[in-house]
Amino acid sequence: MTDVATLIDGYIATWNEKDPERRLALVAETFTNDADYLDPLMQGAGQDGIDAMIAGVQQQYADYRFELAGAPDAHNDRVRFSWHLVGNGGGAPVATGYDFGTLAEDGRLRSVTGFLETPTQ
Amino acid sequence: MTDVATLIDGYIATWNEKDPERRLALVAETFTNDADYLDPLMQGAGQDGIDAMIAGVQQQYADYRFELAGAPDAHNDRVRFSWHLVGNGGGAPVATGYDFGTLAEDGRLRSVTGFLETPTQ
Question: Going from the N-terminus, what domains does chain B have, and what CATH number goes with each?
Answer without folding.
Answer: 2-116 (3.10.450.50)
